[in-house]
Task: structure prediction
Amino acid sequence: MKVLVVDDEERFARLVAEELKDSGHETTVRTGGAEAAKEAGAGYDVVITDLKMAPVDGIAVLESVKAASPETEVIVMTAFGAVDTAVEAMKKGAADFITKPFAMDQLRLRLERIAEKLALKRENRALRSEADRLGEMVGAGAAMKKVRDLVQKVASSDTSVLILGESGVGKELVARLIHRQSGRAGRPLVVVHAAALPETLLESELFGFEKGAFTGANARKPGRVEAADGGTLFLDEIGEISPAFQVKLLRFVQEKTFVRLGGNQTLKVDTRVVAATNRDLVTEVRDGRFREDLYYRLAVFPITVPPLRERKTDLPALCGHILTRLGAATELCANVMELVSEYDWPGNVRELENVLERALILSSGGPIGPQHIQLPEPVLVRAKAGTAKPGGPQAGPLHEMERQMLEDALRRSGGNKSKAAKLLGITRRMLYTKLDRYGLAREDAPDAE
Result:
């Protein structure tokens, strides 16, 4: 790092500078605050300054540095017993302080911490720049790089894409990126959440209906596929649709033709289909719950989005990005990253967003510490989704944990099923399935749409 050492005792300043130079840092010495203040914007990574200097003291140097270069970190050196002054410096933006006399290893350790912090900031800037270009897809690891590469390769074609991954990993984000980078970007991206609609309503929403098609159909209404003409149709949670509707969907995906509900005219659109699911469709096909021909029509170009537990190296950048998006001018304490890295994040990025939003509220906008991070008990951290078998409540600790998590989500959401499902990182339909499995009441407060 490029380091400026400031002290009115020249011999001491040069001794410190030489020691740091031997550790690989590029060092400069200035004897006195007046000299240092003139170089406040000279591009130093770190300024190490004594506090008690005349006529320009260390506080004035700190203020000059932060005014000219807010990203430059400042370490203040203070005499024993002058800790109050050091605390004042910390309030004005100093990164750390060290009390004279000190061992050089103490100073080196502080510089190592700052180096890590600066490296993370640079990574965040690079990732934010990339996120602006690739729509907030944050992550520098190999797994997310592969996803971005696949998105860029397939975006320019009209090939059907099937996005695979657990709930909360960002499948809709990938669909939006594909559309944004395609030649259809100037036309609509129409999103249909298949699991949120009953089968009869799904058909009318997707294909539209004619006047008189059913009670209350007082006028013709075009469907979502017509709204997506020339653009992209994103079918989320495609694995939830019934076998009967799969037949109707196959025709549309294959021919791009459809008939409105209650009509007899075959209509054709130019619509690209992108679908997503958190189910293992290969298993669904094998077990007869999903049509094989529809699967192959949708999965011409599959993209798998990895769960957050498999890309924990992205957590620092993700946390920084989420806090920035929430408008937070704060940071996570170092031990917070250790805490969140130990958790498996079954709800993936969506759960991380919820946890950080709560932490931001609890911290009142200040630095976020471990006391602000609300995670399940350690034993629940190890519980994996999907461990219960269908057919009623199951015995055993894992199933009891799942029941407790359901009850906790219902209590925290005030009985609102939509909010409870979001807290758990699952669909509302999946939540109802689990409530029935454990015999929990389905009556709830009105869902906020």
About this structure: Confidence is low (pLDDT under 50) at residues 129-135, 378-398. The longest strand covers residues 73-79. The chain has three domains: 2-118, 156-304, 308-437.
